[in-house]
Structure formats: C-alpha cells, structure tokens
Write a structure and sequence with these properties.
The protein is an alpha+beta fold and 85 residues long. It contains two helices and five strands; from the N terminus they run E-E-H-E-E-H-E. The chain is 28% helix and 28% strand. A five-stranded mixed sheet has the order 3-4-2-1-5, covered by helices on one side.
C-alpha cells in the first residue's frame, strides 16, 4: 500500500505574547488546512486565518504543544518551536 505524501506545511509554535500560558501556532504552506485540522485535534483553536491558539488553565500548554508538534512531524510537516517553549 502506498504511503501518503508528506504534509506540505510549516508550523511555528511559540508562547503567546500577552498570555504566557497560551501557545500560538502560525501555519503556512499548501497543507495549512490539514495542519490546522491536526492542531485542532490537539486542542488548538482558530484565532486568525493562519494562526491557532492553545490555552489551558492547567498550565500544560507546552506539553500539549509538544504532542501536536510530534504528530505534525510524523505527517511530514516542518515544525519550528520558539525559544521559551
């Protein structure tokens, strides 16, 4: 059975500027919709067309962002994680 092509998207994960417990995901590339769907499964919610936010009251945003990054990389997406995350 053939493997699906890698996800043609790039995701930059970083701490939210105004809310340090929240994580933002900036998504670019032709596979942005698929990447957004995968991020949504991991708790991210749309904020703008190319931006999603993960906000958790238990301060575990970095952990769940890491889980999302692993899932994106497993699908072939490029993931960049900002300093401090």
């Amino acid at each position: 059975m053939p493997h699906p092509p890698p996800l043609d998207a790039h995701v930059h994960l970083a701490r939210h500027r105004e809310h340090p417990d929240a994580v933002t995901a900036t998504i670019t590339g032709p596979g942005a919709r698929t990447a957004s769907a995968l991020l949504s499964v991991h708790g991210f919610r749309p904020a703008h067309e190319q931006t999603m936010v993960l906000a958790r009251i238990d301060h575990e945003g970095p952990y769940y962002a890491d889980q999302a990054a692993r899932a994106l990389r497993a699908q072939g997406a490029g993931v960049e994680i900002g300093a401090g995350l």
